[in-house]
Amino acid sequence: MSKIDQVSDPRIPVTILTGFLGAGKTTLLNHVLTANHGQKIAVIVNEFGEVGIDNQLVVGADEEIFEMNNGCICCTVRGDLIRILGDLMFAKEGAAGSKKVEFDRVLIETTGLADPAPVAQTFFVDEEVANLYKLDAIVTVVDAKHAGQHLDDGHEAQEQVAFADVLLLNKIDLVSEEDAAKLELRLKSMNGAAKIYRTQQSQIDINHILGIGAFDLEKKLEIDPGFLEEEAHEHDDEVASLFFREERPLDLRKMERFLQVWLSEHGTDTFRYKGVLHIKGVKQRVIFQGIHMLFTSAPDREWKATETPHSEFVIIGRNLDEAWFREQFAACVAD
Ligand SMILES: Nc1nc2c(ncn2[C@@H]2O[C@H](COP(=O)(O)OP(=O)(O)OP(=O)(O)O)[C@@H](O)[C@H]2O)c(=O)[nH]1
């Protein structure tokens, strides 16, 4: 927190990090947590799906990460958010019975399917939260390759752009200059007030996203006059997630093969799939990342002696055939 922040407003600044599934939010979070800025950041992560994969992919995830996995942050778990923010403040003050946690700002990573408006609303309508925390900015990461489709397709991606104070046009390496310029125009037409930065691997100067005092309630009320009153919002009900877990080692080739079969027909409706895998003959965890038709896998660190190697995999999309996936996943156990 800068000195000016502290003098003028003693509340803890909060940044909401949003962006559609797979846009680069966790990559940005890792960048922020490893950048040399001398600030202590408490992170709250909310994921769509039963089990958090992201927390396993965040660097130094052991201390600072608070998970909320039982629903979408903008609806069912908003009570959880309020509770965590309250608990965090107790912990900061070293209140009896709570472990002391030092932090001078909070970063909330929302699920790719969250509408940021109700999350932002929490900082104005909940009196206790509003007394302790100040919303600094909403930062939205945009996947330059897939944004066109996501914006045509759904309400959430549009809200994420419309409500942003800062837009990171990420994955700039995957598109031509012409396509990037077109997308930038589209983003400007949807939200002329937001600052836009083009990024690769969400690499951005931290000073452009933290402590910028960009959230302006008046402006948000112009976009959405009902901002402070809204109770719930509508999700695309057809979007669902499937989760798989297996302790026996898997055969990576088999997984890639069945996913390719699925994606050749359902790539558009398969938004996001990712996992931490236990692959036969590999000493490291294998991180699998997929967005629509694009997927990669790579080993990261070795399994620790304290861990039982296992695979966890989540798929998020429309019209997912659960029985088929369960059968295919089971068939990936290595011979
Ligand atoms: N080519 C390319 N890939 C990127 C870039 N930024 C991130 N990625 C990759 O995109 C994938 C998704 O990135 P994440 O940071 O996990 O995205 P996310 O928004 O947190 O995803 P969800 O939490 O599932 O919504 C990963 O494989 C990243 O390595 C980029 O600028 N260029």
SSE topology sketch:
Elements: H1 3-8, E1 12-19, H2 25-34, E2 41-46, H3 54-57, H4 61-64, E3 65-68, H5 78-92, E4 105-109, H6 116-125, H7 127-132, E5 133-143, H8 147-153, H9 155-162, E6 166-170, H10 177-190, E7 195-198, H11 217-223, E8 239-246, H12 252-266, E9 270-277, E10 284-291, E11 294-302, E12 311-318, H13 322-330
Parallel strand pairs: 1-4, 1-5, 2-3, 2-4, 5-6, 6-7
Antiparallel strand pairs: 8-12, 9-10, 9-12, 10-11
Guanosine-5'-triphosphate binds at residues 19, 21-27, 54, 112, 170-171, 173-174, 200-202, 272, 274, 289, 296.
Please explain how this structure is put together:
It is a single chain. The chain is an alpha/beta fold and 335 residues long. It folds into two domains: 3-223, 3-Layer(aba) Sandwich (Rossmann fold), CATH 3.40.50.300; 239-330, Hypothetical Protein Yjia, Chain: A,domain 2, CATH 3.30.1220.10. It is built from 13 helices and twelve strands. The strands form two sheets. A seven-stranded parallel beta sheet has the order 3-2-4-1-5-6-7, with helices on both faces. A five-stranded antiparallel beta sheet has the order 8-12-9-10-11, with helices on one face. Helix 10 (177-190) links the parallel strand 6 and strand 7. Mean pLDDT is 84; it is low at 1-6. It binds guanosine-5'-triphosphate. Residues 19, 21-27, 54, 112, 170-171, 173-174, 200-202, 272, 274, 289, 296 line the site of guanosine-5'-triphosphate.
